[in-house]
Design brief:
Shape: globular
Strand order of the largest sheet: 3-4-2-1-5-6
CATH topology: Undecaprenyl pyrophosphate synthetase
Bound molecules: 3-methylbut-3-enyl trihydrogen diphosphate, magnesium ion
Number of strands: 6
Number of domains: 1
Length: 237
């Protein structure tokens, strides 16, 4: 018997376990982050091949700024390298890059690299790749609430008209569909402040592998797991 597989429109991933991957091999954490960047490359290619239209990955949280300065430097260096070396390829593949999070904490050259990458790929729509960096879900919701409050205070918005759609429209992700699936690697079973509002009805898939070992077949497994779940959105099946 053949069954049809529904491809999720939007897959979001908490890429976790780079440090433990490295420690298990007696390597510095930076080596884990480098392999993590390779895993991201494989996953982006795999997502394209599987027909996933939206891929959002959590690479650096607003809390990750509290890591030792050396590790933050390593991660920023990797991001610079990634933004310089991957953009032409992503553009050639028809991918559109978005970055969500608080950019004010990045060095100016990184802010410029992000803006250039977003401008270059704005017209693409084959794969929508969103990098959540310096991102925190609560901060995002607070900023949206503040924007709505400012409009209300200025008399541009009737507080009674504020609904879920109004708040959704003020998030970084305003023009993205909600994720169908949220994957987290490394065996941790938490959202850790990732897409809190957007993941209200997402299927959560936890994978024991560390992120540097993740690849297309793991993404395929997650798609199959998603297909085994019955989504009812609070209604009766
Ligand atoms: C995920 O790996 C990458 C980032 C959060 C930057 P970690 O660095 O969190 O790895 P673990 O959790 O220490 O193994
Ligand atoms: Mg971690």
């Amino acid at each position: 018997m053949s069954t049809t597989v529904t491809t999720p429109t939007h897959v979001a991933i908490v890429m976790d376990g780079n440090g433990r991957w490295a420690r298990a091999r007696g390597l510095p954490r930076a080596a884990g982050h480098r392999q993590g960047a390779e895993a991201l490359r494989r996953t982006i290619t795999g997502a394209g091949e599987l027909g996933i239209r939206y891929l959002t990955v959590f690479g650096f949280s607003s809390e990750n700024w509290n890591r030792p300065a050396g590790e933050v430097q390593d991660l920023m260096g990797l991001m610079r390298h990634y933004l310089r070396s991957e953009i032409a390829d992503l553009h050639a593949k028809g991918a559109r890059l978005r970055v969500i999070g608080d950019r004010s904490r990045f060095d100016p050259d990184i802010v410029a690299l992000i803006a250039n990458a977003e401008d270059l790929t704005r017209g693409n729509d084959k794969l929508n790749l969103t990098l959540a960096i310096s991102y925190g879900g609560r901060d995002e919701i607070v900023a949206a609430a503040r924007a709505l409050a400012a409009d209300a205070a200025a008399g541009k918005l009737d507080p009674k008209s504020i609904d879920a759609a109004a708040l959704t429209g003020r998030l970084f992700t305003a023009d993205l569909p909600d994720p169908d699936v949220v994957i987290r690697t490394s065996g941790e079973k938490r959202l850790s402040n990732f897409l809190l509002w957007q993941s209200a009805y997402s299927e959560l898939v936890f994978v024991d592998k560390y992120w540097p070992d993740f690849g297309k077949s793991d993404l395929e497994d997650a798609v199959h797991e998603f297909n085994r779940r019955e989504r009812r959105y609070g209604a009766v099946g």
